[in-house]
Design brief:
With 417 residues, the protein is mainly β. Helices cover 3% and strands 52% of the residues. It has 1 helix and 35 strands. Strands 1-2-3-4 form a 4-stranded antiparallel sheet, with no helix packed on it. Strands 5-6-7-8 form a 4-stranded antiparallel sheet, with no helix packed on it. The two termini are 14 Å apart.
């Protein structure tokens, strides 16, 4: 089925508050977003959404851009029923949110929606300053705002800068000033947030986990450098890469108790990548030491192929791991440290089934895109995007483009559509 408009799906800034949906359900949502095209004409707008917002199930006109305005970036809510559009006129921009045209600014961007109910926010610039506009109301001005999102409970969280100082804002609370741009992770239940902070005295970095109101915080051990990379599904373990005395290691931070418990992996010259399983029971990483590349899983180290570049690394709940990397200008996939023999021009979107017994990825060769399932090539199209398993692992859903047509396809584990 060809579609005249393919909405651009936007990640929520740089926050990692919720894992993207996987399997059939997640791709039905994407499919409905694809069907929910904006009609760019001067038409009468439909009524405002109700407080409870459910997922779209039919092709729906979401909004109409008024005559005389030029549409720009488009931002969709996760459920596919709400949309915000940047519109421009006479050198100014405004955010059009479900038929409601906001104030004019020099620039507007990064619209986000409260999950499951009404509420929205975006970043606006005027007179050289930036502010968050929440439900039409301007909040405090800053020199710049880098990130904005809503927690699962609907609390607005953003990162802002004045001069060379940063703050994290959560609801009406604002953190102490920070000396570096913080990476912020939101817990799935919206009760806590985590970010990396730098000590003004020692200049070392550490993880800080706070309640959503920022009133109660605990801190981890300090390192020369620290980068948060992710967390498991219930947020009980955070994953990062730490640097200390010229060496690097993957580090997990246990957030389940009153204090943060840090567990360090082996130390390397470079940590190429790291991943944690959704259940938090398994951790994998790739490390470089003395010019050799090592694959490490749950503390067990094995030498692997001499990758010149490391790309994706994922690990399933059963501890099965897959990673991709480049050797001699070709890209290979590895499962449990063992190379899948065929070389490709590129490999993208690796994924495991929920039980970890099956895997899939998209591979590019000679400008054609192939679905590879358990090492066996399946369907070939001009482009394949984001293959994912259904919850029971029996089907794979993906988006594809071929000969000018865009569509969603479903395949079994042999690749048959």
């Amino acid at each position: 089925m060809a579609l005249s408009i393919e909405p651009r799906l936007h990640r929520r800034g740089s926050f990692y508050s919720r894992k993207s949906s996987e399997g059939i359900v997640g791709y039905i949502r994407i499919f409905m977003l694809l069907l929910s095209a904006i009609v760019f004409s001067a038409c009468q707008k439909q009524s405002s959404p109700a407080q409870a917002v459910t997922y779209n199930s039919v092709a729906t006109k979401l909004d109409a851009v008024p005559a005389g305005f030029t549409p720009g970036e488009v931002y969709f809510a996760e459920e596919g029923r709400r949309v915000a559009t940047v519109v421009a006129k006479d050198g100014k921009e405004a955010m059009l949110v479900m038929g409601q045209l906001g104030k004019y600014y020099e620039n507007v961007r990064n619209a986000v929606f409260v999950k499951g109910r009404t509420g929205y926010a975006y970043i606006a610039r005027k007179d050289g300053k930036e502010c968050v506009v929440a439900d039409g109301k301007e909040l405090q001005q800053y020199d710049s705002i880098e990130r904005v999102d809503f927690s699962a409970t609907g609390s607005l969280v953003y990162v802002a800068k004045n001069g060379n100082k940063w703050v994290v804002a959560s609801g009406k609370k604002i953190s102490d000033t920070l000396v570096a741009l913080p990476e912020v992770f939101l817990s799935p239940d919206g009760s806590r947030l985590a970010y990396v902070e730098q000590s003004p005295a020692s200049r070392k970095l550490f993880v800080k986990v706070c309640s959503a109101d920022l009133k109660s915080c605990v801190s981890s051990k300090e390192y020369d450098a620290f980068t948060l990379r992710g967390h498991n599904s219930d947020w009980s373990r955070l994953l990062g890469i730490a640097s200390l005395n010229g060496k690097k290691a993957s580090v997990t931070v246990d957030t389940s108790g009153p204090d943060l418990k840090v567990q360090e992996g082996q130390w390397y010259d470079v940590v190429l990548s790291a991943a944690i399983s959704p259940n938090g029971q398994h951790v994998a990483s790739l490390g470089l030491r003395d010019g050799k590349v090592f694959f490490v899983k749950d503390g067990n180290e094995q030498k692997t192929a001499p990758l010149s570049v490391s790309f994706d690394l994922i690990i399933a709940d059963n501890g099965r791991a897959m990673y991709t990397g480049m050797i001699d200008n070709a890209v290979y996939a590895f499962v449990e440290g063992k190379m899948i023999a065929k070389a490709y021009d590129g490999i993208n979107y690796p994924a495991f089934s929920k039980d970890g017994n099956n895997y899939v990825f998209e591979a590019t060769k000679n400008n054609r895109s192939t679905l590879v399932i358990n090492g066996i090539e399946g369907a070939v199209f001009d482009k394949i995007v984001s293959p994912r398993f259904s919850p029971d692992g029996s089907r794979i859903v993906y988006r594809a483009r071929d000969k000018g047509k865009r569509f969603v396809a479903v395949a079994d584990n042999s690749g048959r559509t």
